[in-house]
Amino acid sequence: MKNNYHCLTEVDVLLPIHYSNEDYLIESINSLLNQTLKPNIICLLNGMDRNSNVYYANILTNLSVNKIIICPVKGIPNALNYGINYCEGKFIARQDDDDFSNPERLLKQKIFLENNNVDIVGSNINLIDKLGNIIGSRKYPTSNKKCKETLAYKSCFCHPSIMVKKSFFLKNKYPLISGEDYALWLKSYRNSIYSNY
Question: pTM of the entire structure?
Answer without folding.
Answer: 0.93
